Write a sequence for this structure.
């Protein structure tokens, strides 16, 4: 370990600059990788798609709702939501092994969309961004 590494290893953690409104280990890891000190709280909201709502509108609404639910006027709040979309239909989170296997079978050998919305809320207002990716699943 170099002198610099040793110094960094014993530096007290920086105070959080952000509240992450998510229980996702991957989102925590991404913030950690880019050096954003944060605290975590999961927002308990109804994550069902509303009738007539497009998948992109749904993930945007949910990301913003998660941030708004946890906003306390102190730290900026980052809310996010991700959905897998097949044939224009959002795929729910599989709750059982059988449901997970059915989802994998549906994705096998096909291209699907992954939508992620990220909302940032602070005392000045909010900002929302949507990322859309096409993913090709190999035949399982």
């Amino acid at each position: 370990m170099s002198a610099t590494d040793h110094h960094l290893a014993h530096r007290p953690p920086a105070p959080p600059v952000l509240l992450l409104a998510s229980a996702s280990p991957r989102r925590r890891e991404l913030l950690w990788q880019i050096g954003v000190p944060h605290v975590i709280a999961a927002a308990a909201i109804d994550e069902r798609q509303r009738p007539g709502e497009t998948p992109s509108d749904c993930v945007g609404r949910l990301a913003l709702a998660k941030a708004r639910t946890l906003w306390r006027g102190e730290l900026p709040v980052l809310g996010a939501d991700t959905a897998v979309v097949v044939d224009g239909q959002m795929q729910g989170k599989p709750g059982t092994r059988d449901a997970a296997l059915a989802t994998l079978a549906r994705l096998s050998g096909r291209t699907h969309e992954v939508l992620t919305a990220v909302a940032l809320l602070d005392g000045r207002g909010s900002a929302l961004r949507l990322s859309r990716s096409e993913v090709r699943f190999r035949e399982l």
